[in-house]
Every structure is written in structure tokens, then in C-alpha cells.
């Protein structure tokens, strides 16, 4: 299909503005309902639990988990990666499957202990398990700082989206103010109830868009098998010379001199069907493994705590196995479609992101496509906001409950803890907005690397603490060594960056430090080993005595398949056979992800949660 001239007038977006306005009003209505639920919860559970916690069944829990994991990057970033790098973007499907593997590894024990010990803050387990102020503060730093950079990225994405939608009529600073006012209003009105209930609305909107996009895009531009080969039926030759950025390039008669191909992925980007380089293979492997720590992010841990039961958590994990095929496939299709048709579109759409460029072209086709673009825009705003408000709540709970009440002002009233949490959210939004105003793309990339390194530092604290009698001093030493090494490598540079990401160097130093200090401590007399330990590993095992945990061998198999799915077995740069529009290595990777889905399904099925919520003797609530 030939490109269409871009309409840059405001009246073309009137319907879009109306729908976005209705969506925002709907969020306010939901927040009001959440406020009523919060008032009732205060009467029965107190201020802190009413604001920071809750109890939600399988459906609500799945939808809030879905909208929290699938951020604005799912809608904007994945299409852009597919447009720029082709089938490397398939890794995002495997990413969520690795996240579920992490959930199967951590959540059953974390959820059970949280239920019997009465956890509210995301890091209550760490405080309960190790019991020292130094580790409490270190873990708070590792939890809050990554969230700051994460929220900054969400604010920048929201601002770019709103500016693009209004054709620049709203300045960047005003977009950021709108964003902050909305998520802070939702938090003050309903706390966690607002977050979860708005997540439900936002998830429904996102899922509806995700299910519709592939069909509509394929109907207009062709299915992937039809637009993949270089000689596909949609092949056209167009002139790259245009009179202005809004004009459609002229179609050439035959393969005239200076004309470029369009309409077929391989004709426009033949490198997409070449076997990836070794550095790309390493990048995919480390990217997938990095997702293992996502369930330890504060706002994801909160989803573990607010489950009504372990059985509901199991249902959510099973549903999340299917989620990436629904949520991330559309973005990949959008990016690949733009990569094929990009040369025949106006320059303004060629220079736009994959999401914006395709949306601009699609909305000019007909009324239904315009409506779909409106839904896609709302779902993008929903994805950004749902992730941001969850992250803000996670950070504010760490500061107010863990740091201030848990360490500095233990006698602080519950009402003041909540007020402090709200004030913390305001400060976080202000700081994130300031960083967003002055950060460029390169700086945001560095922040994301730093964020990943910070999250990785918590892996020994949670992972080893849930399964092994690890010493507090070992975990503390590991975090300190990991953070120092991360800063040093970011400053001096990583000579093997093409093969080993910086975050893994710092993580390796963390793990080695933990092993070294743990070995030294284990050689000491037992009574010198631990100071202040409240929750022992024996108590954790007792908490699981009424459950049959997911088979760890199946979790390990999921991770093994994820690593094996990377394209390591071919010759870099070699042209690949095209099968159903995919390069052969891409088809193999998708097949591996399907295997992970089934293995994960078996692991979920074999997990037998307790039939009731009885507290195991000796595990009474510690808070």
C-alpha cells in the first residue's frame, strides 16, 4: 500500500483528544471508587495497610501485574527495536517467560512468608531475614535509585507521547506536570486500591489493542510471511527525493536509477535475514538472564504481597506465561511493517518512531483504523501511567516504612507514615521530572544500565536468603563490592562491553564477594555467625511445609532453554532461509519460547499451594 500525505492540522486529532479526555475522566472515577475502598480498609486494617497494601483475587492480580510489567516500552520501544534491529526484538517474548521463571523461583516462598509474617513493604523480607540497619539502608538504596531512573524514563515517554499527539501544542514541562499531578492524585485518593483498580482499566485497554493491532496491520499491509521475502507481492520502487517532509515519495517505473525498494522487509533491510553476530548473541543471552531479577523490583514484590492466596498467585503466573505472545508480538509486527514500508511514507513519518509513524499512516486509512489508533494511543498512555504509579508506590513504601519508621523514627504514627509516603512520592516525581528535562537519550541509556546493575545487587539477598542459611555480613559485603565496581566500570569503561554487559561484571563481583565472605563466616564458630537474624532459613522451610513448591529443575530448564534460544550455532553474517517470514534462527527462537511456555505451565501445575492460610507454628507475624 502506498504512503499517504501527513495531515498536520489540529482538527484531524479532535476525536483523539476526546477519547483521551474520556480515558482520563474514567481514571478519576475509578480513583474515587478506590478512595471509598481505602476508607473502609482503614477501619479494618489501619492506615498503613490500607494505603500500601490490600488483598486481590486472581483476575485483579493478573491485570495489575500485566500492566505493571508491560510499560510504555512495550508499546513504543519494542516497535522501535524491531524497526531498527529486525528479529532481534523477538527476545522480548522470551523476556517475560524468564520473568515468570523468576516468579516461580522466588514468589512461592516470598508470598507464603509474607502471608504468615504480615509483610507490607517490598523489603520487609530482607529486614526480617537479616535484621541489620546497614543492610536495610543498602537494600533501600538499591531499591529506590533504580525506580528513580525508571520513573524518569516513563515521564519522558509520556511527555514525548503527549507532545506528539498534540503536535507540540503542549510544552514538555507541562506534559510532565500533567503526568505527575495525575499519578499523585490517584495515590492520595486511593493508595494501592487506586493503583490496582486503574491497572485493571488500563490492562483491559492494552489487551484489547494488542489483540486487534496484528489483524488490522496485516489487513492493510500484509501478514509477515507475505512481506518478508525480497520479491514479495508488495514490492515497489520509490524516489527518495520529495518536495517537503509531508509529501509522499513518487513511485518509480521499474528499478529506475536512484530509486529505493519498499514494501518487502528483505528488500529494504537484507541484514534482518542474516545470522546475528556473536556480540548480538551475547547481548540476547544476558538480556534474557537479566529478566530473572525483575520479580525482585519493589513494585513487583508488592504484587506478591497483595495476592489473596497462594492459589491466586499461581493462576497469575500461569496467565503471565501466555501474556508475552499477546502483548509483545504486536509491537514486533508494527516495527517490522514500518521497516518494510518506511521508504514510501512521508519523511515526517520516516523520522518518527515506529509506533508514531505507523499510527500516523494507519489513522488516515479509514474510520475504524482511526479508532484503533486512538485506542493504541490511550493504551500507550495507560501502559506508561500504570507502570509509573506502581513504581512510585513501591519507592514511597520503602522510604516511609523501611527507612524512616523502620530505622530512624520507629515511634512514628501510622497516619504520619502514610503522609510521609505521599510526600516521598511528590519528591520522587519532582526529581524525576527535573532529570527528564535535562536528560538526553545517551544519558537515559546510562541510567538504564545503572538501574539494571542496582537491581542485580539484590539477587543474593533475596535468592540466597530464601533458600540458604546465608550470613548478613556476606550479603552486605557483596552489595557494597557490587555497587563500587559498578560505579568504577561506568566511569573507566568496560573493555568487553560487546560481549559482557557492565551490570554483569558488577553482579559477578557481588556474587564472588558473597561466596568469599560466606566461606570465611562458615569457618567461624556458629555463635559468631549471625547478629540480629530474626527469620531463619529453617523458618522459611517450615512456612513451605504445607505446600508443594514448583520443581526447581523445571525452572532451571526454562532458563536453559532461554539461553539455548540465542543464535549461537550459525555463521555470523550468513544469509538465512526465510520460513513463514522469519529467518530460520528467529523461527527456532520462537519454537524455544513455546517450549518455555509449556515447561512453565507444567511447573505451575505441579505447584500445590496450601489449602488454607493457617500460620505455621513459630512463624507468627513479626511486625
From TrEMBL:
GO CC aspect terms: plasma membrane
GO molecular function, one term: symporter activity
Pfam families reported in the protein's UniProt record: SSF (PF00474)
Subcellular location per the Swiss-Prot or TrEMBL entry: Cell membrane
UniProt record, GO biological process: sodium ion transport
Alphabetic keyword roster: Cell membrane, Ion transport, Membrane, Sodium, Sodium transport, Symport, Transmembrane, Transmembrane helix, Transport
Transmembrane segments: 14-34, 55-76, 82-106, 137-158, 170-192, 204-224, 284-301, 313-336, 367-388, 417-438, 444-466, 473-493, 499-517, 552-570, 585-607
Statement: the UniProt record of this protein carries the keyword Hydrolase: no
Membrane association type: Multi-pass membrane protein
Similarity-based family: Belongs to the sodium:solute symporter (SSF) (TC 2.A.21) family.
UniProt protein name: Uncharacterized protein
Native source species: Cladocopium goreaui
Lineage: Eukaryota, Sar, Alveolata, Dinophyceae, Suessiales
Amino acid at each position: 500500500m502506498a504512503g499517504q500525505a501527513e495531515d498536520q492540522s489540529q482538527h484531524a486529532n479532535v476525536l483523539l483528544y476526546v477519547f483521551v479526555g474520556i480515558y482520563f475522566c474514567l481514571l478519576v472515577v475509578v480513583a474515587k471508587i478506590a478512595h471509598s475502598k481505602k476508607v473502609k480498609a482503614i477501619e479494618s486494617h489501619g492506615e498503613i495497610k490500607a494505603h500500601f497494601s490490600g488483598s486481590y483475587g486472581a483476575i485483579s492480580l493478573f491485570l495489575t501485574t500485566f500492566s505493571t510489567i508491560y510499560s510504555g516500552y512495550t508499546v513504543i520501544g519494542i516497535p522501535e527495536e524491531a524497526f531498527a534491529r529486525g528479529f532481534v526484538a523477538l527476545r522480548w517474548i522470551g523476556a517475560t517467560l524468564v520473568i515468570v521463571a523468576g516468579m516461580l523461583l522466588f514468589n512461592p516462598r516470598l508470598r507464603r512468608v509474607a502471608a504468615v509474617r504480615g509483610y507490607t513493604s517490598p523489603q520487609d523480607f530482607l529486614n526480617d531475614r537479616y535484621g541489620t540497619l546497614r543492610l536495610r539502608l543498602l537494600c533501600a538504596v538499591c531499591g529506590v535509585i533504580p525506580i528513580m531512573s525508571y520513573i524518569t524514563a516513563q515521564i519522558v515517554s509520556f511527555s514525548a507521547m503527549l507532545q506528539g499527539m498534540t503536535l507540540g501544542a503542549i510544552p514538555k514541562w507541562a506534559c510532565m506536570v500533567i503526568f505527575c499531578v495525575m499519578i499523585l492524585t490517584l495515590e492520595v485518593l486511593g493508595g494501592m486500591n487506586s493503583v490496582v483498580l486503574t491497572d485493571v482499566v488500563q490492562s483491559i485497554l492494552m489487551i484489547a489493542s494488542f489483540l486487534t493491532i496484528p489483524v488490522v496491520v496485516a489487513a492493510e499491509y500484509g501478514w509477515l510471511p507475505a512481506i518478508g521475502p525480497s520479491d514479495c507481492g508488495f514490492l515497489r520502487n520509490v524516489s527518495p527525493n520529495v518536495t517537503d517532509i509531508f509529501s509522499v515519495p513518487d513511485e518509480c517505473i521499474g528499478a529506475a536509477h536512484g530509486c529505493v525498494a519498499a514494501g518487502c522487509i528483505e528488500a529494504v533491510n537484507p541484514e534482518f535475514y542474516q545470522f546475528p553476530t556473536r556480540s548480538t548473541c551475547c547481548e540476547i543471552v544476558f538480556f534474557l538472564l537479566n529478566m530473572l531479577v525483575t520479580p525482585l523490583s519493589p513494585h513487583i514484590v508488592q504484587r506478591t504481597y497483595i495476592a489473596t492466596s497462594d492459589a491466586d498467585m499461581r493462576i497469575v503466573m500461569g496467565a503471565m506465561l501466555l501474556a508475552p505472545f499477546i502483548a509483545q508480538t504486536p509491537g514486533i509486527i508494527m516495527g517490522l511493517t514500518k521497516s518494510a514500508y518506511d521508504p514510501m511514507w512521508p519523511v515526517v513519518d520516516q523520522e518518527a518512531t515506529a509506533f508514531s509513524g505507523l499510527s500516523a499512516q494507519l489513522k488516515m486509512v479509514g474510520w475504524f483504523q482511526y479508532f484503533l489508533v486512538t485506542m493504541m494511543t490511550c493504551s500507550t498512555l495507560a501502559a506508561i501511567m500504570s507502570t509509573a504509579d506502581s513504581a512510585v508506590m513501591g519507592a514511597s513504601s520503602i522510604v516511609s516504612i523501611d527507612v524512616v519508621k523502620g530505622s530512624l523514627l520507629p515511634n512514628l504514627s501510622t497516619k504520619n507514615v502514610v503522609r510521609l509516603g505521599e510526600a516521598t512520592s511528590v519528591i520522587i516525581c519532582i526529581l524525576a521530572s527535573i532529570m527528564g528535562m535535562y536528560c538526553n537519550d545517551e544519558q537515559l541509556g546510562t541510567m538504564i544500565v545503572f538501574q539494571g546493575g542496582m537491581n542485580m545487587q539484590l539477587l543474593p539477598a533475596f535468592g540466597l536468603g530464601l533458600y540458604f542459611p546465608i550470613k548478613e555480613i556476606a550479603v552486605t559485603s557483596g552489595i557494597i563490592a557490587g555497587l563500587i565496581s559498578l560505579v568504577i566500570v561506568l566511569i573507566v569503561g568496560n573493555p568487553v562491553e560487546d560481549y559482557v554487559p557492565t551490570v554483569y561484571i558488577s553482579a559477578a563481583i557481588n556474587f564472588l564477594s558473597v561466596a568469599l565472605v560466606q566461606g570465611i563466616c562458615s569457618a567461624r564458630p556458629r555463635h559468631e555467625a549471625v547478629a540480629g537474624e530474626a527469620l531463619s532459613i529453617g523458618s522459611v522451610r517450615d512456612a513451605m511445609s504445607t505446600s508443594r513448591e514448583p520443581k526447581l529443575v523445571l525452572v532451571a530448564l526454562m532458563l536453559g532453554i532461554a539461553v539455548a534460544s540465542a543464535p549461537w550455532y550459525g555463521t555470523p553474517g550468513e544469509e538465512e532461509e526465510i520460513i513463514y517470514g522469519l529467518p530460520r534462527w528467529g523461527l527456532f527462537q520462537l519454537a524455544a519460547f513455546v517450549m518455555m511456555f509449556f515447561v512453565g505451565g507444567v511447573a505451575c501445575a505441579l505447584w500445590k499451594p496450601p489449602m488454607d492460610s493457617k500460620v505455621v507454628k513459630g512463624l507468627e507475624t513479626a511486625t
